[in-house]
Amino acid sequence: MERLNSGIGGVVLFVNDIGVMTGLATDGDIRRAVLSGCSMEAKAHKFMQRDFTFGNIRDDRTKSLGKMSDAVRHLPLVDDNKRPVDILSWTDFWQIPLVQPSLAGNETRYVSDCLSSGWVSSQGGYIAKFENAVTSFLGGGTALCTSSGTTALHLALLGLEIGPGDEVIVPNLTFGATANAVVHAGATPVFVDINPETWTIGSEQISQALSDRTKAVIPVHLYGHPCDIDPILKVCDEAGLKIIEDCAEAFGAEYKNKKVGTFSDVACFSFFANKVITTGEGGMVWSQDKNTIARMSMFRDHGMSKERRYWHNVTGYNYRMTNMQAAIGLAQMEQIDRFLSHRRALANQYHARLSNVSGIKLPSYKEWAKPVCWLYTIEIDTDHLGIDIDALSGRLREHGVETRRVFIPLSGQPAFNSYPSLNTPVAEQVAARGLSLPTSNEMNISDVNIVCDALCSILETLEALTDR
């Protein structure tokens, strides 16, 4: 088992006294041996495969690949004396990526139109078309394209006049951009814990963190599950706080049949390549308040006046999206219903395959929520199974499956450890146990089954060893 864990994952080779290969054993062979009742002290060579597939180190890779299959994922390469020299892994040729953008719609046609027209920078007709498409999808308000989800958050804070001396309540489990934007605005992030079921901030956590300096709250709809918004609205209304919804991972999710983002003073979206829809890099702010929109628009465009060209009212930024990016975004919006439906199907298949697997806690979906499956993310009982998340992710990668641990709590990181933080045990536990599985608009149901087969095989081996 030590060799399995430290070497090429999933296979160990056996050689005789002169180095000639005599067999191999996979983690499945060891698991079956343990389950059949053998002790951990038993000689491993008794369970090795003596009739095994191998290649010659001098063979070209195409010939070696032809010997590989679902059953043969690691091919030992031997010299002319049958001494092992290398191992060719299936993952050298194939892998299920964590995410993969879908660009099979009108993306190429619209970008070609930008190139042929010459409108390639931040001016051009696709900017307004993309903004209008998102506004229509959200059911009203006004949207502004931005250069990223991070700059969208910064603009939201500037638009709401939040800055030095102000505190902003932020969940401790989120991507660093949420807190970065607060710091760049000159305000102070205050980190709070999350709900153990939804992994999102709640009204109780907000109430515990209130001070006379609290100016705003940034609820993050983490991994696509909405926050419980109504209690948050009540607390913020009573305390006179602004709300900025971080919807970077939840475009299209709903709370009580209403799109997330539409409950707040400002909503922020990200269209990075791994998001529900993408513009490559890019983001968007949305609001129903015209004054807030006007301020954000001014800051986005170098702080210039809309009435007098090259007249700078404030020290602004260039946070604009290019016309080419917006063209891609428009093409993505034409497919949004299909994307959301497909992600629900992926989540349903993951749930069906993993619901009865020991050592896994599946995501919890509340009755008032219609999540969007950004990344299907589970918790692993790492203590019981005797493996940490990074090691498990490495084992899955050797099976051709790319995964990712969840975010690391911000309060303990060098960039943020000087800012106030409440006790956040839930965030710490989720960070230690959370694992995101491949989820994207291009992924097939058959890919979900491959992921689940690999995960279950590894966990069954670990469970068998634990039970011994």
Please provide the count of β strands: 19
The unreliable regions are none
Name the helicity range.
Answer: 25-40%
Mean pLDDT, all residues: 93
How far apart the termini lie comes to: 13 Å
> How large, in whole angstroms, is the Cα Rg?
26 Å
- Structural class estimated from helices and strands: alpha/beta
Task: Name the beta content range.
Answer: 15-25%
Strand order of the largest sheet: 6-14-13-10-9-7-8
Count of helical segments? 16
What's the story with the biggest beta sheet?
A: 7 strands, mixed
Shape: globular
Structural commentary:
By secondary structure, the chain is α/β, with parallel strands linked by helices. Helix content is 36%, strand content 16%. It contains 16 helices and 19 strands. It has helices at 2-6, 27-35, 61-66, 107-117, 125-138, 149-159, 176-184, 203-209, 229-239, 290-300, 323-333, 336-354, 382-385, 389-398, 425-433, 445-467; strands at residues 11-15, 21-26, 55-56, 74-78, 84-89, 142-146, 167-171, 188-192, 214-217, 242-246, 254-255, 258-259, 266-270, 283-287, 360-361, 369-370, 376-380, 404-405, 434-437. The strands form five sheets. A seven-stranded mixed β-sheet has the order 6-14-13-10-9-7-8, with helices on both faces. Helix 9 links the parallel strand 9 (214-217) and strand 10. It starts with a helix and ends with a helix.
